[in-house]
What does this fold into?
Amino acid sequence: MEGGALAGAAALWLGVLTSISPCPLATNLAAISYLVKTLSQPWRVLARGALYTLGRVLSYSALAGLLIAGALSAPQVSRFLQTYLNKLLGPLLVLVGMFLLGLIELNFSWPAVGTRLEDRLRDWGAAGAVLLGMLFALSFCPVSAALFFGSLVPLALGRQSAVTLPALYGVGTGLPVLLFALLIGAGAQSAARAFNRLAQVERWARRGTGAVFLAVGAYFCLLYIFEVFG
It folds into this structure.
């Protein structure tokens, strides 16, 4: 029970950290501002932000769920993971930790939405907000890709959780987005101040998470690869 709760909290935190990372944070703020700029009632702004958030949750949950269910359903892959997953986790966590600490740099992006498509989706109202959230969730940048593929997916594989942990990760990615929808409904200045504060918080949160990943990864390497504590 405690292990499951800890894994759930970790998946939720990874989702929050993904959402407040610079690239996804700027994308989310721009997308919500774009979706609600023709709306006047605060409740409609909040509803549109919630629908956009739902789209992100659905994409992350579906993608992670498919990857994990596919891996667990293949007998050879499942046996391989049961035998070597702990040994692979150590180096993987070390690499992700180094990346989060800025010791390794990667430059790539995966654009999923064009300007014309954005215009069409906004005109579709509620359904367009959900679809835009789904598409923007798939626009991976280095930080979000490292957290999703390098942290969430291995965590869920280790717990054999194709639904719960990916869903919690998706919820985590949606919480800051929903906060921004509330702030945009309250006023642009509130959203701008929150953006600046979150950018500062993200820097320390990313470094703290990177340090933890590096320490846990080193421990896993010593325990499962070099069998120092065996």
Summary: Residues 188-225 form the longest helix (38 residues). The mean pLDDT is 84. Residues 66 and 184 are 34 Å apart (CA to CA).
